[in-house]
């Protein structure tokens, strides 16, 4: 009777008691490289135990190692799976006992059963002499024909590699895909945490409504400092030989010829109004408070004041200047009060 090829059921976990093989004996022989293939095919390396049959001692990783990695099931099930054991320690006796977890299924063919089937084949092994073959032609004309790649010497490695590629395509690389998904989840969580922390920092910054949280200076905004304005006024006064005109608070500056590039002293506390549409771009008016606080306001024009300041000259002796950008917009620079 032809023996059956025994297979264990597929065990993806490597822990099924149904797939546990204990004390499987193997004879190593006296070859320089001593390898054994276990009777029931692929096995999980994490639970592999090899003992010297002569001493009963477990071999350590320095005395043997598993080989012939099954790449597809290893990636698919997340555990190392091999098919061969190589004994590297020459002091190990010629017989060993092996405990292992069989992967089973497609990878669990019984090597002993296959050997028995081959040994039981009824082969006609009588010797044949080529010279005794009768009626053979002197030549065999070749014709177009095919050869199976597996029948060509040296192609068995290519066939094995193609089989592995086929298995990988059919089964998929689930372990690698799971790792990619885990990486995406980690990156998403880190980005979300960064966004939340940045949002908290922005909210805290927005809540600051007093002082100067940015440490902004006049140079950052393109404005003149007080010292720069003083130097500018002094230079312009000297260059223009400015004539001082004294007016009272409440005066409206509406005459370009009378007030452009003039130094105007204002007496009393109150407002000086600047009439829009009268002055031109690059016109300048210089103001000095002779007494009281003077506010500079626009009448039909816009007066821009420096960052953090207002349009009020603080008192006697304070000076400022109006520099026109257009006939309806002027910048107020110099000694004015801070808001």
Structural class: alpha/beta
Number of helices: 7
User: What separation lies between the terminal Cα atoms?
Assistant: 109 Å
Relative helix content: 25-40%
Major beta sheet, strand line-up: 8-10-12-16-17-14
Q: How many strand segments? A: 17
Topology:
Blueprint (H helix, E strand, L loop, with lengths): L19 E8 L6 E4 L5 E2 L4 E4 L11 E6 L1 H7 L3 E7 L7 E7 L9 H9 L36 H16 L2 H33 L11 H4 L4 H15 L3 E5 L3 E2 L2 H4 L3 E5 L2 E6 L8 E6 L4 E6 L2 E3 L7 E2 L5 E6 L4 E6 L5
Parallel strand pairs: 8-10, 9-11, 10-12, 11-13, 14-17
Antiparallel strand pairs: 1-7, 2-6, 3-6, 4-7, 5-6, 12-16, 13-15, 16-17
Describe the structure.
Among the domains are: 17-119, Sandwich (Immunoglobulin-like); 222-334. Helices cover 26% and strands 25% of the residues. The protein has seven helices and 17 strands. It has a six-stranded mixed sheet. Strands 2, 3, 5 and 6 form a four-stranded antiparallel sheet that branches. A hairpin with a 4-residue loop joins strand 16 (319-324) and strand 17 (329-334).
Keywords:
339 residues; alpha/beta; Immunoglobulin-like; 6-stranded mixed beta sheet; 4-stranded antiparallel beta sheet; 7 helices; 25% strand
